[in-house]
């Protein structure tokens, strides 16, 4: 059977990628998130015009990746085909095939380009304010009986790690001659970072944001508008990050001359690799900062929160092949993993395809996406970056679900002990300290990334403060 130009549907299963019940009768949320809408799918085998014209949609390659899922990690853990073990790839609509090919070509051309790197690092130093401090949290360390160092991404210009990636991609967009930038955002930090970069470079900026997030992150919405961006509230689904991403991709399909700055290590190849690359400055700095402060360049533990996974990828990037370093990630447990009100993708997820990548996602037995929930707008995503799916499945990372109350307690604790108000996303990572306390030794070095500051979350904190 020739599969090059056709999407083959047998019953409710896509024969091409074998994803479990990927197509449903009616309009499937998962179908929508794959950038197209099919009419009612009757029983039997039907052919539709293929929207997945990409080398990643190759059954033999998928089988090879599953067989070699524990192969040695390359830079950032990715192979030459955009896979992290069995996860990743590029499941994209044909209308964007050319855009992705040009993006890959441009990105891999600049990765080792001295001129690009010089311009990028100059901006990181003199505009963002890097390096961000690696701060020894003495009172927090005393509380947990170990040595805790905080990587202070909250002190970056715009208040989070997101600016690292936004500036890298905006420079790439300019090299490609793009003048209109689009982005999705959940907590608003990526939206603010993108709007900031666009203002700096004089480019048009459109940010898609779920209506629920617009309301709970209104301060960031006002910042984006002040920076000159158009903020498009999204009213589909549960009106959060997934839905904003859907709308951004739909817009890109209609306007393929735009440049889409994806904010996390999600989506089709090369986005997970590209975002990880631009965020890798975090672990690059951690290495020399540890060397300066403690006389060695590696910690015993690395900790970060994961939603899509950009700050975590940046934190882990240069340590993925270092088995001296234990890596622990915090995902959003919401009201509890077993409550149905959660975003614990790695704990609950099964293999599927969302926003162009094969990864773990929260779905029911029919392949329908289950709407995620978290107190954190930046973590309530039903999927996970394919790299983090692979790291968890291969055992490279340990992933713990942190519920809302645990995150709030950790935020208030850091504020009380160290005078630092973290973003609610970062608070999920801070809650790992209590979860892992029994494993710490007094001389262990724990590096934990504070991905953002808590200004945007003050309404939430005030509401729950006791």
TrEMBL record:
Annotated GO molecular function terms are: tryptophan synthase activity
Q: Which CDD domains match?
A: Trp-synth_B
**Pfam families on file:** PALP
Residue intervals of the Tryptophan synthase beta chain-like PALP domain? 129-452
* Record flagged with keyword DNA damage: no
Signal sequence, renumbered to the chain: none
From the UniProt record, give the pathway where this protein acts: Amino-acid biosynthesis; L-tryptophan biosynthesis; L-tryptophan from chorismate: step 5/5
Cofactor(s) needed by this chain: pyridoxal 5'-phosphate
Q: Which InterPro entries match?
A: Trp_synth_b_CS, Trp_synth_beta, Trp_synth_beta/beta-like, TrpB-like_PALP, TrpB-like_PALP_sf
Q: Which residues carry this modification: N6-(pyridoxal phosphate)lysine?
A: 162
The EC number(s) attached to this protein equal: 4.2.1.20
Q: Which reaction does it catalyse?
A: (1S,2R)-1-C-(indol-3-yl)glycerol 3-phosphate + L-serine = D-glyceraldehyde 3-phosphate + L-tryptophan + H2O
- Give GO cellular component annotations, separated by semicolons: cytoplasm
PANTHER family noted in UniProt: TRYPTOPHAN SYNTHASE, TRYPTOPHAN SYNTHASE-RELATED
UniProt record similarity statement = Belongs to the TrpB family.
- Its name, as the record gives it, is Tryptophan synthase beta chain
- Cite the source lineage: Bacteria, Pseudomonadati, Bacteroidota, Bacteroidia, Bacteroidales
């Amino acid at each position: 059977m020739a599969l090059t130009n056709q999407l083959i549907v047998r019953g409710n299963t896509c024969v091409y990628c074998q994803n479990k019940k990927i197509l449903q009768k009616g309009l499937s949320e998962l179908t929508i998130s794959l950038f197209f809408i099919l009419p009612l799918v009757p029983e039997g085998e039907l052919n539709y015009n293929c929207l997945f014209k990409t080398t990643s949609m190759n059954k033999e390659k998928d089988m090879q990746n599953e067989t070699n899922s524990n192969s040695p990690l390359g830079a950032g853990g990715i192979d030459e085909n955009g896979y992290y073990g069995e996860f990743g790839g590029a499941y994209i609509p044909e209308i964007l095939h050319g855009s992705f090919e040009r993006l890959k070509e441009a990105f891999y051309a600049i990765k080792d380009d001295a001129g690009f790197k010089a311009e990028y690092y100059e901006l990181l130093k003199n505009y963002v304010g890097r390096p961000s401090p690696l701060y020894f949290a003495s009172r927090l360390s005393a509380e947990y009986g170990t040595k805790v160092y905080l990587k202070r991404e909250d002190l970056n210009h715009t208040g989070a790690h997101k600016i690292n990636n936004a500036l890298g991609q905006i420079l790439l967009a300019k090299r490609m001659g793009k003048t209109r930038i689009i982005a999705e955002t959940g907590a608003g930090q990526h939206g603010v970072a993108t709007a900031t970069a666009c203002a700096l470079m004089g480019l048009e900026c459109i940010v898609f944001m779920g209506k629920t997030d617009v309301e709970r992150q209104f301060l960031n919405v006002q910042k984006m508008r002040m920076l000159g961006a158009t903020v498009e509230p999204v009213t589909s689904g549960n009106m959060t990050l997934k839905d904003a991403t859907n709308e951004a991709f739909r817009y890109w399909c209609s306007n393929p001359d735009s440049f889409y700055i994806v904010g996390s290590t999600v989506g089709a190849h090369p986005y997970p690799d590209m975002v990880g690359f631009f965020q890798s400055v975090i672990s690059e700095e951690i290495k020399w900062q540890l060397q300066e402060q403690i006389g060695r360049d590696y910690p015993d533990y690395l900790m970060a929160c994961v939603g899509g996974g950009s700050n975590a990828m940046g934190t882990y990037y240069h340590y993925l092949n270092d088995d001296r370093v234990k890596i622990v990630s915090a995902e959003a447990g919401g009201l509890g993993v077993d409550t149905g009100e959660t975003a614990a993708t790695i704990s609950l997820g099964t293999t599927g395809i969302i926003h162009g990548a094969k990864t773990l996602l929260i779905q029911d037995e029919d392949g329908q996406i289950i709407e995620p929930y978290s107190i954190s707008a930046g973590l309530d995503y039903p999927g996970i970056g394919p790299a983090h799916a692979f790291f968890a499945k291969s055992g490279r990372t340990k992933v713990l679900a942190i519920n809302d109350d645990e995150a709030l307690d950790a935020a208030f604790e850091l504020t009380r002990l160290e005078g630092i108000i973290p973003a609610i996303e970062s608070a999920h990572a801070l809650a790992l300290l209590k979860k892992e306390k029994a494993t710490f030794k007094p001389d262990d070095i724990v590096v934990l990334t504070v991905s953002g500051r808590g200004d945007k979350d003050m309404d939430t904190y005030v509401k729950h403060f006791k």
